Amino acid sequence: MKRHTALAVTGLLLLTAACTAGPDDGDDGEAPAPETSQAPGGRWQPRPGTAWQWQLSGKLDTSVKVPVYDVDGFNTTKEQVADLKRAGRRTICYISTGAWEDFRPDADAFPKSLLGEGNGWKGERWLDIRQASVLEPLMAKRFDMCRDKGFDAVEPDNMDGYKNKTGFPLTASDQLAYNRLIARLAHDRGMAAGLKNDLDQIPQLVGDFDFAVNEQCAEYGECDSLTPFIKADKAVFHVEYERSTDEFCDRSKKLKLSSMEKKYELGPWRKPC
């Protein structure tokens, strides 16, 4: 199941540098204060139930009354991040760490030996995460960008290549080592790190990550797999594309997930639980 590949539309629908205000479903009043605890080193760690907005395409709508924004790291400007922070929002930097994207400005920096099979979306190919010594400086530079723009956290995507047809003989051990490397790169820069999908490895990785991001656990009957994060007092940011809020919100609330319905293009529209 390649649920993460819904994000590939960002290659065609890039965030513009301008901010705009617009209507939002389900939110009224001022943005609540972020629900936060302190992780080791003083970095941000969102708590279960924290509301969020996830926007990776279209003109950035800063009017959503939630404490957390998850936005594209390349296409969101330092000024936009500062505007969100002045409004009391925490910010998460979306970066693909397990797949190469030909539309990114650093695409030519990736050696061809790293590039595997396509992940089902135009312009994207899986990365050989076994070549950690080659990938580490590339990802470190991306995370430097996130830090320098003022982001509080990183959402590294495509973190479950070992479960897909990448063109490389990736193992679970390869994935664990790489995911821990990614978490360390974020932590070394004072940012929190979120585990994206990779449900099977949550028991081993919950201690390495500060929150989780999940797509479609309700559709696939997998939401219970995310409970280790909740038990560790760490937020699970969750979206569904093919299910309505009537179908999953009751269960999400019981599990303390931060859930909402979104469209695949991940534009401004949202319908939270």
TrEMBL record:
Organism superkingdom: Bacteria
Annotated ranges, domain Glycoside-hydrolase family GH114 TIM-barrel: 52-268
Keyword Ligase: no
Coiled-coil region list: none
Listed Pfam families: Glyco_hydro_114
SUPFAM superfamilies: (Trans)glycosidases (SSF51445)
Keywords associated with the record: Signal
Signal peptide extent: 1-21
Ranges where the record places region Disordered: 23-48
PANTHER family (UniProt xref): ALPHA-1,4 POLYGALACTOSAMINIDASE, PUTATIVE (AFU_ORTHOLOGUE AFUA_3G07890)-RELATED (PTHR35273), ALPHA-GALACTOSIDASE (PTHR35273:SF2)
UniProt name for this protein: Endo alpha-1,4 polygalactosaminidase
Organism whose genome encodes this protein: Streptomyces racemochromogenes
